[in-house]
Design a protein that fits this description.
mainly alpha; 134 residues; 3 helices
Length: 134
């Protein structure tokens, strides 16, 4: 190969030949690994607190813990139906249930009306046959 020639297609800065799914999976694995590392670090620090050591969390660790606690608090409130989003979801569900109940009732009424028409027609046919025989 001569100078300046590439075997394959050169990559543009910031891109790679890996599929985007790989990059997403790697990012998810990294975030899970980071969470595990934070939890392990907290466990280590919990064990050393009794030794009268001064242990402080870094700003990043404190923010991560606060973020997790806030998310857990929000999810608990949402399960209890106390957040605005949960209220909207519950209202939407109630409306959908009401519409489905009304549609089911309407279908039942139509089915009953259709059945009564069949019976009425059969009675008319029988009556006509009876009158024609007499």
């Amino acid at each position: 190969m001569r100078r300046g020639e590439f075997k394959g297609k050169p990559t543009v800065a910031g891109t790679s030949t890996r599929p985007s799914a790989f990059r997403r999976e790697e990012a998810e694995e990294e975030s899970e690994e980071e969470k595990e590392e934070v939890e392990e670090e907290l466990q280590k620090r919990k064990g050393t607190e009794g030794m009268n050591r001064r242990t402080e969390l870094s700003k990043r660790e404190r923010e991560e813990i606060e973020k997790q606690k806030a998310h857990e608090r929000y999810m608990r409130l949402r399960e209890q139906g106390k957040t605005e989003q949960a209220r909207k979801d519950l209202e939407r569900l109630a409306l959908i249930r009401q519409q489905r109940a009304e549609a089911a009732k309407k279908r039942e009424e139509e089915k009953a009306a259709k059945e009564s028409k069949k019976i009425l027609r059969s009675l008319i046919v029988i009556n006509c046959q009876f009158l024609s025989e007499s």
